[in-house]
Amino acid sequence: MIPDDQSVYDRPLAELDPELSELMDGELARQRTTLDLVASESVPPRAVLEAQGSILTAKYADGFPGRREYDTCEWIDEIEQLAIDRAKALFHADHANVQPYSGSNANLAVLHALCDPGDPILGWDFAHGGHATHGWSETFAGRFYKPAAYGVRREDRLVDMEQVEALAKAHRPKLVFAGWSCYSRWVDFRRFREICDEVGAYLVVDMAHFSGLVAAGLHPDPVPYADACTLTVHKTLGGARGGAILCRTELAERVDAAVFPGEQGCPLPHVIAAQAVTFAIAATDGFRERMARTLAGSSVMADALVAAAGRTQATVVTGGTDVHQFLVDLAPSGREANAVLAQLNSLGISANAIRLAFDEAEEPGASGLRIGANPLAARGLGPAEFAVIGELLADALEDRSGARSGELRRRILALLEGFPLYQFI
Ligand SMILES: *Cc1c(COP(=O)(O)O)cnc(C)c1O
């Protein structure tokens, strides 16, 4: 029974609401015993959890540092300014807005800032690895703007820059999105910039996935080429669950106004504080080492699956990876990705089933897997462990009958035991 007196303000969750607390414990236990290969996930450090679960959540602070619609924001102003200054320093950006509630909100806000409803926009096709918010018909971007989409080439599955140029010339977009959710190679931001200059379009690089790699200097930097960059703080950047926008000085006012009051109400001060500590962590050598280990892990796993293609009948799209994730094409094996994912889940592995570009199957199923190294690298795993995981994945893909599942599950638990998730909980 929840006590109905003042003590609700001081009781720990486990005591106040054991029903909810047990569910949360269940999720923690799941995270501890799961080999997490979900490319968009990470392990938020304790300091991020503390900031994001803090008393800052109580404060209303509509507006920006020094110009709020609420009084008594002196501490929130300093916290938000700290987050802004750290984001600008980390990414060498002219201006940063740290208020978007998520990566999707950040994209919504840049569209709002730089386009009018009905304007043509050009984005990376959702069916070819782009994000839904770049113009897919089911989203605000697809409904309120006039989208066209480019994709990857059939022959090598690399983004088709000739198509980008041809579509830009034919469609005359006001804004071009570059950036992906399901892709594993570097993108030529300079070429995107040239194309945008040819047709007078804004270039927005959505680095939701690779912002951590950029911060570590281990990925081409889009900031010098883009008019604006959108990002998430919780994917490779590894921290607070939230979004941010970087932009050139000339666009700062429009971007800020599009976020607030354009799209959102009060910012989330607890999230902004958690972003501030995330940016501080991301500026350290330790973070750079972790991102290097993430990249090494991704490529070691991809190599193991390339080497095992004979027995798994699954191929690695583009033959490898430059980033924290890679894509596996299951079509040659004749297996449906959701069924394979269910098998992996039963072994204690999480990943994503995705529909790959040029998947011509009529049924709505998926033909590919997306495998990422970020959460496990955050947990401390290195190339030697990722090589073992590559072998485990290959063994699991080969083991169609499930005859080896007991053995595979034991190997996974043994591996994870050496890398406990959090010491403090
Ligand atoms: C994940 C992602 C987003 C959206 O981020 P959310 O925080 O989940 O809203 C936007 N763009 C790309 C490319 C992404 O991968």
Question: Care to describe what's here?
Answer:
The chain is 44% helix and 13% strand. The chain is built from 17 helices and 15 strands. It has helices spanning 13-16, 18-33, 46-52, 74-91, 103-114, 140-144, 161-171, 189-199, 211-215, 252-263, 269-282, 285-307, 309-312, 337-347, 374-378, 383-398, 405-417; strands at 35-36, 63-64, 67-68, 95-97, 120-124, 146-150, 175-178, 202-206, 228-232, 243-247, 315-316, 325-329, 349-350, 352-354, 368-372. The strands form 4 sheets. A 7-stranded mixed β-sheet has the order 4-10-9-8-7-5-6, with helices on both faces. The protein has a 4-stranded antiparallel β-sheet with strand order 11-12-15-14, with helices on one face. Strands 1-13 form a two-stranded parallel ribbon. The radius of gyration is 22 Å and the shape is globular. The mean pLDDT is 96.
Tell me the layout of helices and strands.
Layout: H1 13-16, H2 18-33, E1 35-36, H3 46-52, E2 63-64, E3 67-68, H4 74-91, E4 95-97, H5 103-114, E5 120-124, H6 140-144, E6 146-150, H7 161-171, E7 175-178, H8 189-199, E8 202-206, H9 211-215, E9 228-232, E10 243-247, H10 252-263, H11 269-282, H12 285-307, H13 309-312, E11 315-316, E12 325-329, H14 337-347, E13 349-350, E14 352-354, E15 368-372, H15 374-378, H16 383-398, H17 405-417
Parallel strand pairs: 1-13, 5-6, 5-7, 7-8, 8-9
Antiparallel strand pairs: 2-3, 4-10, 9-10, 11-12, 12-15, 14-15
Pyridoxal-5'-phosphate (PLP) binds at residues 40, 102-104, 107, 131, 133, 179-181, 206, 208-209, 232, 243.
